[in-house]
Amino acid sequence: MLDRLTEFFFPKQVSTFASDIDNLYFFIFYSSVALFLIVVFGMVYLSIKYRHRKGEELKLTSSKDHSNLLESMFFIIPLILVSITFVWGIRSYLKMVIVPDDAIEIKVTGQSWFWTFDYPDGGTTLNELVVPSNKPVKLVLSSKDVLHSFFIPVMRSKMDCLPNRYNVMWFDATKEGVYDIFCTEYCGTGHSQMGAKVIVMQPAQYEEWASELGSEDDDLPLDELGAKLYTKKACNTCHTLDGSALVGPSYLQTSQMWGQERVFDDGTSTVIDDNYIRSSILEPMTQIVAGYQGVMPTYQGLLSDRELDALIAFLKTLNEDSQI
Ligand SMILES: [Cu+2]
């Protein structure tokens, strides 16, 4: 019955400490409900019972001025409730902050407006955190720009991501599946799109996945790899493919302007070619397209040369005229 209620109000419980946190929540919730009902019903009952009746003589004070028993109950009951909450709370809290020694460590980097994950055996993913089930996973979090906050509702764990500083959180996933990750610190225009997924796999499957990480794309033709990277590397959060401007110019527009002059906010301009696209991706802040803001993150260190080539090849496929 309690489980049913939890599932109705809350997301699934997927980490080892999720049920602990929910149960504590419901303990506080139901004891507040019980106290509320006792107080309200008591008040209504007493005011009806001792109401002034017509023709009755007014007795303003009773000879009984207080009751030791009643008064001590008034602080003993809340004291017990608060003590239970404290002990339960601190034990759950300690469980959440003390990371088991055998945890695998994944580096999480937040930046406007996507997440990068660096795995212990090399390789990175964007907006997709892959972890084994039934094994503690430690996340070391930081941000490249503003404050973000990393939240996995099904794990009941959340932690701020700060620039120039590391925060730590951990969880032990109990069920395989794909679950949501949110940024829960308002961080600018793209905040609402700053979601990601956590994919929980069987440990054996995870090992296999981790060993193949990065190598699977080697055989793809450049333009197909580019199309894949376009979403995988979160370019699509700021650039559309249909010509409409989002935070940045549409990839289609850039492609259609191939060979033409691009004007920047400082009045200078350059011709759109392979080198321009490459430097736009690696050093976005040096030339800011007029009419846009310099919010594109640098992809220095996040893309291999082949991946850069692929993104450029993909851009060219969007427009016939650019296939020079
Ligand atoms: Cu954010």
Please tell me how large the radius of gyration is.
29 Å
What's the CATH class of the largest domain, please? Mainly Beta
> Can you tell me the CATH architecture of the largest domain?
Sandwich
How many domain units? 3
SSE order in H/E notation?
A: HHHEEEEEEEEEEHHHEEHH
Helical element count?
8
Terminus-to-terminus distance: 67 Å
Describe the structure.
With 324 residues, this protein is α+β, with helices and mostly antiparallel strands. It has three domains: 80 residues, Helix Hairpins (Orthogonal Bundle), CATH 1.10.287; 109 residues, Sandwich (Immunoglobulin-like), CATH 2.60.40.420; 104 residues, Cytochrome c-like domain (Cytochrome Bc1 Complex, Chain D, domain 2), CATH 1.10.760. 37% of the residues lie in helices and 20% in strands. The protein is built from eight helices and twelve strands. It has a five-stranded mixed β-sheet, with no helix packed on it. Strands 4-10-9-6-7 form a five-stranded mixed β-sheet, with helices on one face. It has a two-stranded antiparallel sheet with strand order 11-12. The structure holds copper (II) ion. Copper (II) ion binds next to loops.
